[in-house]
Amino acid sequence: MAGKVFLSEYSLNTVRGVQILKAPPLRVQTPITSSGAAQQFTPFLGHTEAIRIAVDGGGPVCIQFGTAPNATTNDERWAANQTEHRAVAPGDTISIISSPT
Fold first, then answer.
1. Which of these, 15, 32, 79, 89, is most buried using a 10 Å CB contact count?
2. pLDDT in tens, 40-49
């Protein structure tokens, strides 16, 4: 089954010496439903420093980060129901593809 991938972009804030995501998100991108072909999210905004990316129960997916990524099934695999936070560079993006296993 195809997994839907959700992506929110954030700036960072330091509170009592701990760096955390600043709410609300700068942008919540339209979710992508994974398929057998690589797809890309819109490039991150100029103020984006971190993202929250979540795969629904239909995963797994493979993900590649970069300026012009093209995910393959050999890239980083994320399981169904996996949620991660990552530091990213403004202008970069993410490409996803369904993982066969």
1. 32
2. 999 999 999 9
User: Residue 7 in contact with residue 53, Cβ under 8 Å?
Assistant: yes
Do residues 85 and 51 lie in contact, with contact meaning Cβ atoms separated by under 8 Å?
A: yes
- pLDDT number for residue 1: 57
For residue 94, CA distances in Å to 13, 18, 45, 52 come to 23, 26, 13, 12
Do residues 70 and 82 make contact, with C-beta atoms less than 8 angstroms apart?
Answer: no
CA distance 31 to 9: 13
In this prediction the pTM is: 0.91
Structure tokens at 19: 């760096």
Residue where the block lists tokens 């991150």: 44
What's the residue count for the chain? 101
Domain range summary for the chain, segments of one domain joined by +: 4-98
- Structure-token pair, residue 79: 């399981």
Residue 8 identity (one-letter amino acid): S
- Strands 32-33 vs 83-87: parallel, antiparallel or unpaired: unpaired
